[in-house]
Structure formats: C-alpha cells, structure tokens
Amino acid sequence: MMDAIGEAVAGHVVERALTRIGPALVFWTGGALAWLSANGGWDRLLALGADAAELPALAVLALVALVLAGAYASTALVTLLTRPALRLLEGYWPRPLRRPLVNRRLKRRAALTEQWRSLAKRIEEPPPATAGTEPASAETTAAGTTTAEAAAAEVARARADFARCEDRLRRLPSPRWMMPTRIGNMLRAAETRPFEKYGLDTVAVWPHLWMVLPEPARLDIGAARTALNRATAVAVWSLAFVAFTGWSAWALPIGLALTAWAVLLWIPHHAARYADLLEAAFDMHRTLLYTRLRWPLPGNPDAERDAGAALTNYLVRGLAGNQPTFTPEPAP
To answer: Are the beta carbons of 315 and 199 closer than 8 angstroms?
Structure first.
C-alpha cells in the first residue's frame, strides 16, 4: 500500500516537473540539433552516444542533473521575462513610439462606431412593403416575393455585420484608455469597463474582490491567467530560438514563425478569454464585495457609479465621517 502511494506521489512530482521544464527541454533539444547540424550531424550524434555509454553511472547521473539544472534555470529566467514581455506586447512603450499607433486605433474605433450606428439604424428600420397589396398578376406576385426575400436577406446580413462590429468594439476601450496594440486593448478594455459601468477601480479593488469570489470563478480566472502567461512564455522561447541561427540557418524561420504564431494568434486568444472572465467577475460578483464590506448596495446604475467610486476611495485611502451607514453583518 505504501509503495503504491509512493509511486503515485513520485509520478505526480515527475509529471509536474516535466510540465514546468518541458518548454525548456524542447528549446535546448532544438538548440542541440542546430549545433549538431553544424558539427558533424548524425555521425557526431552517434559518436557522442558511444562516448556516453562508456561513462560510469555516477557521471551519467551528474550529466542528467546538470541538464535538468540548466532547464530549471532557463525556465526561471523565462518566467521572470514573461511579465515584462506581456507588458511590451500590451503596448507600454515610451509615448513617442506608441502615439502614432494609438491614433490609428482611435481612427479605427471611430470608424467602427459609425459603422455600428449605421447598422443599428438599418436593423431598426421596418422592411420595405412588397409590390401591391393584391396580386394583380403572377409576375407581380413573383416580383413581390423576390423583393421580400431580398429585404429579409439584407436584414440578416446587416444583423451579422452588426454582431461582428459590436464584438470588435467590445475589445476596444474608451478613447482615453486606448493602447497601441490589439492585446493591450483587449486587456485594457476589461480593466477599465468596471470603472465606467460601476465606478470601481479594477486595479485597486481586484485584490479585495478576489478574496470573496467563489472558488469556481477563482479557478477559472487563475487558469486563464496561467494560460496567458504560458502563451507569452512560448513567444519568449521562440524568439530566443533565433539565437541558434549562428549554428543553423533553419533556426531563423522556425523561431520567427513560432513567435509570430504566438503573438498574432495564441496570446490574443488567451488574452480575450482572460479579459472576458475578468469583466464577468465584476459583473456577477461585485455585490459580494459590497456585502462583505458592509457597504450599502446602490439602488440604480447612476447611484452605483457614485457608490463604486466611494468604495474604491474607502479601500485605497479610507474615509472619515458618518457616511455611509454600514449594513448589518451578513449571516455566516
């Protein structure tokens, strides 16, 4: 029984270790292949294998420990670089560098807003009347039916275009919060929308809201954030792979292709998922924060913005006086 438990624990530890250092092992394996391609190729690999087979067991264990230590060290380094890399991808650059791209995003947002308004009007307009109320002839009836079908198809296209336009606008923050990159705008929209809707400063309030979130919500948000960090780490590993170009030319296209895939597709996918869950946490669970802090619940949207601003100020700086009056302690 104890042996079975020990094997299960050991297997779990090994699985977690391989998950953690797996990207590093792939990275250094690719680097080793690049080195071999420039230093003898398959014949050199066979010679190294023969030399390793003659080493004593202790030396082999020491070599394996050295490889694992290197993998852990490089993983730790990439982990440290993940957050700065994500902020770079979000567009936290010096103002002179980001201003032109921000202006382009602002123009794009204005064009999308105008398109959204135009499509909304087209959807709200009544469909055009068919030709005549009484069918004077077969041709008139056929023509009237064709016109109605064309009008219905046009409305359906307008609704589809409206949905796509609205989804794109949802991924963009207000003009004053605009960032120069797609990833930055996804995350900035989720970070600023609770302030615009509820008066709650996301950065200041988030640690407190996190403490009262239900466990399933915390697990989902934590998993989404971990996935976003891992996708960013893939971009860092891929870009670092370009350094092996000095040994083999194929390292350059592979590294650049993987970096482009991570930056253009994988990171935005996970950023959108994380942004949706972050915003949903405020939409669905902000009242838990009010309740746990014994703060009076607002009665309407306008009052909620004022209450959210006051609650943010209370959490950041504290308040003095006799307002607001705290509600009774919630039942356990």
So the answer is: no
Q: Which helix (H) or strand (E) holds 17?
A: helix 2-38
Distance (Å, whole) CA 111 – CA 324:
43
Q: 315, 205 in Cβ contact below 8 A? A: yes
H or E, element range at 149: helix 138-170
Residues 6+ apart with CB under 8 A from 234: 23, 258, 262, 266
Nearest Cα neighbor of 34 from 278, 242, 195, 182 is 242
Q: How far is Cα 92 from Cα 207, in angstroms, rounded to an integer?
A: 23
What do you get for the CA distance between the two ends of the chain, in Å? 41
Q: Which amino acid is at 179?
A: M
- Within its chain, how far is the Cα of 88 from the centroid? 14
Total Cβ atoms within 10 A of residue 26? 13
Q: What percent of the chain has pLDDT over 90?
A: 52
The token duo for 96 is 């002179």
DSSP string, 240-266: HHGGGGGT-TTHHHHHHHHHHHIIIII
What are 274-316's pLDDT values in tens digits?
A: 999 999 999 999 999 999 999 999 989 999 999 999 999 999 9
CA distances from 272 to 55, 201, 202, 237 (A): 51, 20, 17, 22
Spatial separation of the C-alpha atoms in residues 308 and 194, rounded to whole Å: 9
182-197 as b/e, with b when 16 or more CB fall inside 10 Å? bbbbbbbbbbbbbbeb
Nearest to 222 by CA among 265, 270, 185: 270
SS3 content of the chain, % helix, strand, coil (to 5): 80, 0, 20
**Chain segment 133-192, per-residue pLDDT in tens:** 444 444 444 444 567 677 777 778 888 888 888 888 899 999 999 999 999 999 999 999
Q: Could you report the per-residue pLDDT of 89-136, keeping only the tens digit for each?
A: 999 999 899 999 999 999 999 999 998 888 888 877 655 554 444 444
